């Protein structure tokens, strides 16, 4: 294995994890670590403070550094730093999903020009090997679908809501206290994090650029304990699913939203902060990869794995890992959510009046929606009823139109929730 | 990607699958296919019969062939054929688990001398990417445990026994009728197939040679519907588990046997012919890889994946994939089953006499075995009772001794089964 000098940008949880794991690999030398606050006390045994710098450009411009490991996150200054490093002929290992989802194609283009590689196993699903397998051993496949749990925070919250019958707010608060959710949880609970990851996975699976702004995104903040209870009664678990599909006409359908997942589905069994990716393709069929999607150590497994594979390849060639090159010229044609077909869960609050069920059935029918299950359980104190409808596969725009029509009727008080269903 | 000429040895289900998948990859040219019976009618559209030969050495000695793809199976003549091919400087892609488990170290040694690679993703778990990920992106890890369902036939039989309350014999018969089990099912049901695969996985995970003859192996033929019923009542599913563990003293524990797997464990949820591998290591933690473990198409995904990665690497180097080199000098110290520690399920047939439970408890206690659960359900017509005991972690040799002592007592009629438990 070739000896490499590396520079690490970012020295938080993941950076420190990478530092600790790299100690066992004598051929990889950490030459510099760029940090925000050089005076912060680091709780690491025998740590050489002279490795630290507050100027990350020192690393990007250091002629002795072979590989930049970027684990700082965010767009600015990471984008410019990595451009500089690539310009200077350095290979990149990064865990920065936002950067890759938003600016990946520019970086990959530059990397190709400069004959360096960008590796990013850690950017999606932490310790789970998925990027490298798709790029290498699975490359005989035409992948046509990914359905995945890519955000540990929301999966933890949904698991606790189901296990302990908690409200979203209470479960979020507990997740924050235990360190599973951040003080500002927006990036996780609104689905941004999962959207970055499914953008990356869809790009490498379908071999076209994916526009992050065209990914339909819906978080978990509107899921109620009543939804979870109804789902359970119907044989489902609610999960935040990131999905990418290659349609028969070559268009792609990429989105992130909560789904009712049938209990028999392997993704329904993924609890707490675990991540899991189901990938379907020809000839391989369905594969499921499950493991820790975050955390210092699992993420370090992927970052250091990338570094070691690169070091191994550089022993015998100056053009390592040609199969990882990611340089797609064309944007995928992404369809909007209105054009997708799904099964639906519709939670309706209606007045306790005769003909309500008939009205729902009629309006659904007029909009080409077949109902497969309808459930009403008793009457509320305010003389309204909760009605849950599960539909057969229907067009999203038809469903939206039906819901608008339902709301115009006096006896429909509210559409409490609309969720999609995966069987 | 470099253009490669390949020769395929073996043209059964997998060979035909590889042929079909390779049609989409114009840079990989099939130069020759070695078959047993050259006159057999092949049901393939536009098939060029002139590709066929009954002499596989033609391929191994053909200077125009770059890569030999061996999907014939068995030791003879595969071992000699691959040695000849390697001597002639050809790279090898093989799905032959028996050959690798029994003769792998000789082949890898020769390959290293001749500077060629042997790739074998398809030898373990069909389409599931596991060999290449362990060798590459997971290489930062110290793997300390593998627990896996590696044989689809036995998993199918056990699933049907549980779902439909069938006897082993009936479930086997149905599996044979549906093509899930062979006419002579020994290789699958006695655990040989799983033993070859766990030998390969343990070798690459623990980086020492594993002696296939020292792997403890027990099949599923003694599992009764009563065992499956009792397991279910206690919250377990019975699976044939292939296991490899690196112990703290550096010794390894490799074995194949049925286990009671706790219902909450991800492996308990793997049904029918699906395979699944749980791998634990530092820093990655637990990973689970699930997918089709057999079949023409999934296996072709792995075989063609190996070929394409090789072609890609050969574009930029004559020494491709250095990280896949497998050349272990040392044999692992494998411990015998008697020295392992496990939780146990013991099914006992006892006479309906006072003091039986006390006797079981006393003999277990005298042999350092703590009982965690004991269950007796009514009395049989012959005035005997079925008693099921679950123990805490105990030494196998102690358990065997306790069973011998129990059998000496008049009131113990039979030890119906002894199975190990995974929580």
Folded structure, characterized:
The structure is a homodimer of 423-residue chains. With 423 residues, chain A is of the alpha/beta class. The first copy, chain A, has 3 domains: 4-126 and 295-324, NAD(P)-binding Rossmann-like Domain (Rossmann fold, 3-Layer(aba) Sandwich), CATH 3.40.50.720; 131-292, Dihydrodipicolinate Reductase, domain 2; 341-422, ACT domain (Alpha-Beta Plaits, 2-Layer Sandwich). The first copy, chain A, has 13 helices and 17 strands. Chain A has helices at residues 13-22, 56-60, 78-87, 97-113, 131-135, 152-164, 168-177, 186-189, 192-206, 225-233, 296-314, 356-366, 396-408, and strands at 4-9, 28-34, 52-53, 67-70, 91-94, 118-119, 142-149, 216-217, 236-246, 252-262, 274-282, 285-292, 341-351, 371-376, 384-391, 394-395, 412-422. In chain A, strands 7, 8, 9, 10, 11, 12, 13, 14, 15, 16 and 17 form an 11-stranded mixed β-sheet that branches. Chain A has a 6-stranded parallel β-sheet with strand order 3-2-1-4-5-6, sandwiched between helices. In chain A, helix 1 (13-22) packs across helix 11 and helix 4 (97-113) runs parallel beside helix 9. The longest helix of chain A has 19 residues, at 296-314. The mean pLDDT of chain A is 96. At the A-B interface, strand 12 and helix 11 of A face strand 12 and helix 11 of B.
